[in-house]
Structure formats: C-alpha cells, structure tokens
Amino acid sequence: MPVKKLKTQNSKLKTEIRKPKASASSTVRSAGLNVPVYSLAGTKKGTASLPKEIFGAKVNENLMAQAVRVYLVNQRQGTASTKTRGEVTASTRKIYRQKGTGRARHGAITAPIFRGGGIAFGPKPRNFELKLSKQMKKKALFSALSSRLLDEKIAVVDLAGLSGKTKEVASLFRKLNILDKRNKVLFVTDDAVERKTARNMRSVNVDSVHSINTYEVLNNNFIVLSKNCPPKMEEVFLKKD
C-alpha cells in the first residue's frame, strides 16, 4: 500500500479517536451495558448483555492511535526493488576515451545519469513490520468498542429465520437507519449464512469475532453484532491464557 494512502487513512481516523461525552458515559453505566436486540423485521426483541470488560473499558486514545498505525504500516508489502549500476545488464566497455573529447570522464554506460543505467539510492525489498503485544492489541480493541458503544454506534441483531437473501439484511439495516452511502457498517458474525448474505452489500464489511481489530472498528461508522457474538467475544478475549 502506498505511503500517501496510509497517511491519508491515518489522518481520517484521527477524527474518529476522540474522548466520549460524559453524559453518554453515565448513560451506559446506568444501563448495565444492556442493548436492545432487533429481529429480522426491525422490531425490538429483548435485550443483550454486553461484557463490561470489553464494551465498558476505559477509552485509551493513544493506544488506539498506536494500534491503527501498526495495522496500516503492516499492510505495506515492501517488495519495491530497483537495480543498481552493478545489477543492470549492459556492456562493460569504456563508452568513450578518457581524454580529448571535451566531455566528462565516464567508464560505464550503467552509470545512474545515463538512460537505462542503474538507480542510485533506489528502493530495495525491506520489512516494514511493526509489532504490538497481545495485551496492547486487546486493550486497544476494547477501547475502540467501548468508544463506539458510548457513541451509540453498536447494535445487536437476531437474524433467526434468515433465508440467505441479501435484501433481507439490507432491509433490516435500512430500518435501523444505518445503511447509508455515507456510512460504513461493520457486521460481525461467525455464522456462514449470515456472512454470505451480508457480504454483497457495498458499504457493509463482514468480519468474524476472531479477526476483528481496532482499525476496522474505528474505520466503520456503525458496528452490528450478531446475537451470538457477545458471548463468543467474552469467550475469545476474556479467556485465561
């Protein structure tokens, strides 16, 4: 991924990483992290309890910014490569005599100043990888999810009775007012039918519980969780190593 594109994406995400409002924080605490569950018809169907350790964590802006930077930098392949003057295939004879021509002294046609010559100080394959500990990754993800919950940008859906048609999920998202050209929705589910149904929508990104990360949470405007995701997330992220 080009460096300019990484910088622009990183700058866009800076606006997403901000401190939550105090009023929203008090509302979530008093509600006990319970959020309504919406059926396929778009009606409320009970409530779901979200793990407090995951969705009620303290929002750490610096850690989220660091996690986003590490994720974006690790997308760089680092495979760009150019040939030096010693690697270019060309004749090794002296291109013209040393004296008497009035021109500068040159010995090889592979010099960087000549067309078809080598590249001086050009890129070579390198590893751009940055590392973040498991604990830091987990805390950054918890901060991002907690920030989205404080902003009321998380919904839980129960897709029981789904036939596998994309229009059913699209209709549900429209009823919840989250499917918009300006919005990007992250749909988290481990169900194969739900994943196949939702992946055809242009503004919807589908991911599983095991592969969700801080960048995806912050890069999408709304997070939709399948009904089975909260207990699965508690099992995956809060298990003792």
Largest sheet: 6 strands, mixed
Pattern of helices and strands: HHEEHHHEHEHEHEH
End-to-end Cα distance, whole Å, is 34 Å
Low-confidence stretches: 19-31
What's the helical proportion of residues? 25-40%
| Shape type | elongated
* Number of beta strands: 6
Instruction: Provide the CATH topology of the largest domain.
Output: Ribosomal Protein L4, Chain: A
Key terms for this structure?
alpha/beta, Ribosomal Protein L4, Chain: A, 2 domains, six-stranded mixed sheet, 6 strands
Task: Describe this structure as you would to a colleague.
By secondary structure, the chain is an alpha/beta fold. It has 2 domains: 3-77 and 130-237, Ribosomal Protein L4, Chain: A, CATH 3.40.1370; 82-122, no CATH class. Helices cover 37% and strands 12% of the residues. It has 9 helices and 6 strands. It has helices spanning 3-14, 22-31, 52-55, 61-73, 134-150, 166-175, 192-198, 214-219, 229-237; strands at residues 34-38, 44-49, 154-157, 185-188, 204-207, 222-226. It has a 6-stranded mixed sheet with strand order 2-1-3-6-4-5. β1 (34-38) and β2 (44-49) form a beta hairpin. The relative contact order is 0.17. The model is unreliable at 19-31 (pLDDT under 50).
